[in-house]
Write a structure and sequence with these properties.
This protein is of the alpha+beta class and 139 residues long. The protein has 2 helices and 7 strands. It has a 7-stranded antiparallel β-sheet with strand order 1-6-5-4-3-7-2, sandwiched between helices. It is globular.
């Protein structure tokens, strides 16, 4: 016997998607899916300058083995990230999957998989300021 989706699950998913689309005007329902629930946990800042600049974010990712690059061309051998920012500084980083889609942790909200980087542009994250890559690690 197959699993059935309960009506409240479908309604909750729709509410979550509508909320995400209000926060990110370019995000379309058909271009993303929620991959995890919202979290309430904090994080530990790595050994790098702690300030809101894009340069500080780049320093963090350099420390994690990434190097700067000019684009996010999909390659099976490279793990790509895109660093978002605006005039105030660093806002977000998205990681590219081998499929070419992107994973984004939306602060304390949900993790989402989205098709395009532009899906998050012009929302509270600004635009892509820097691409970075490192050799893909075996999973």
């Amino acid at each position: 016997m197959g699993h059935s989706v309960r009506p409240y699950q479908v309604t909750t998913r729709r509410i979550i998607k509508k909320r995400m689309m209000r926060l990110f005007p370019k995000l379309k329902a058909s271009n993303f899916r929620v991959t995890s629930r919202a979290t309430r946990t904090g994080y530990t800042w790595p050994a790098a300058p702690r300030n809101p600049s894009v340069a500080a974010a780049v320093a963090v990712f350099l420390g994690l083995g990434f190097e700067t690059c000019d684009n996010a061309d999909v390659c099976a051998h490279w793990e790509n990230i895109a660093i978002f920012g605006d005039a105030a500084g660093y806002r977000h980083a998205a990681r590219q999957l081998e499929t070419g889609h992107w994973l984004s942790k939306l602060g304390k909200l949900y993790d989402i998989e989205h098709k395009f980087l532009d899906d998050l542009a012009d929302g509270s994250y600004g635009t892509v300021m820097q691409f970075m890559k490192r050799p893909r690690r075996p999973e």
